[in-house]
Amino acid sequence: MIDHSYSFRVIYPETDQMGTVHHSNYAKYYETARWELFRSIGIPYIEVEKAGYMLPVTRMNFRFIKTTHYDEMLTVITTLKEVKGVRIWFTYKLYNSNNELINTAETELAFVGKDNWKPCSPPDFVVQAIEKYSSQ
Amino acid sequence: MIDHSYSFRVIYPETDQMGTVHHSNYAKYYETARWELFRSIGIPYIEVEKAGYMLPVTRMNFRFIKTTHYDEMLTVITTLKEVKGVRIWFTYKLYNSNNELINTAETELAFVGKDNWKPCSPPDFVVQAIEKYSSQ
Amino acid sequence: MIDHSYSFRVIYPETDQMGTVHHSNYAKYYETARWELFRSIGIPYIEVEKAGYMLPVTRMNFRFIKTTHYDEMLTVITTLKEVKGVRIWFTYKLYNSNNELINTAETELAFVGKDNWKPCSPPDFVVQAIEKYSSQ
Amino acid sequence: MIDHSYSFRVIYPETDQMGTVHHSNYAKYYETARWELFRSIGIPYIEVEKAGYMLPVTRMNFRFIKTTHYDEMLTVITTLKEVKGVRIWFTYKLYNSNNELINTAETELAFVGKDNWKPCSPPDFVVQAIEKYSSQ
Question: Chain B partners of C28 at a C-beta cutoff of 8 Å?
């Protein structure tokens, strides 16, 4: 298990006419947050693709607890839960600037070959980085 | 239960550098599909907002089975499963033009007042339309 | 010169908290419209990429005349103005359902090789399709 | 004239299947950059809306000089050129991490009343902040 914190500000094009953030943006927030976690353990996602792998999402679940607004500063706590076989699991907790939990999510991704889209084991440098930084 | 079919074409800005559709777009596809279901039973979503209600998403789950590409024609089969209390549930099955199932999803939404964001019962015209068109 | 008409409906994720369409979406509308023009003359853009070419935008200009809203039906009149050297020019007029002109735009694109991103002449099948369908 | 520098990283959902940034995203980059300029002179855009005004875009022009990619750090130099009557003009220069100019743009926006969308003079606190920070 590896935790990482990533903060960002809600921008105008992410709002919709309800005056809140359109729900499709949370998938983008969490994608950015998980690759920042990857960067923090020395494996920027761009290196994963350069090594011939991709990580498409195979499942994602979201629970919307509280709304948010333009210009709010938000913080995602991302947790890399597990890597097993061809898959990797992350969970996310999103907080507003009052430290209120506003959204939770989980995503499952699969390692695939960049050229053939076939599921495959993660490359060694990814496995090693995750082992090195994992806490019990 | 009410079923509805909605077809559309994948456009270029929905692609990402994997050469497939970015996963955040599925939330947009299904939103458009459920409001087309609403339109088909005589209650365009715009009328719901005009009547003083909004329908934010409270939960959404996606399962990605097969990838898709630019310019493919896709079809969503949307099912309105249930309205109960302040909530409404939809499920979605997304097919490509070979009739292969490529994604499934479910969303839970809540009726809220447009001015106060407080959960509330759906307006009568929505309840009546759903009852009128529901099959057992 | 080749004209083409393309109609579509404004969807919810395209709105912003002004209650109108976020201005970044017009680039997407016009991209979709110009590839529908291409499809109408027998050269779907996907075939251009399959033949080893891409068409990135090199300039685009927009004038916003009147606002629009969720669920409105809009129509773009797209005009392919000219192909010359490595470049191709399109203009766009966007109308609402009252036939009011709400936006105009022009884009310049360049043919480039898919592998090397080097500017190049358009492939013959594109030149021939444009010549065949052009009016004076 | 007021200058401001804003840096950010290209994220995955902004890419398209050309392997570069989809051109519609530049409008979002520059919007975020101009409101960061506004924030830097003490008038966060959210305060402009709270005071009853909005700033829709009335014209925008883009020139694409060089492409960019996922995970690149980019820097926009935004210049507030002029406020006159109901309008305000900004220009933008976008640089990659090699300090190469990759895109230039200009936008014209109009002050309008939040409730009636009628063009109007900017509020005093905006005019005063701009005067205070303008260089000759």
Answer: 11, 13
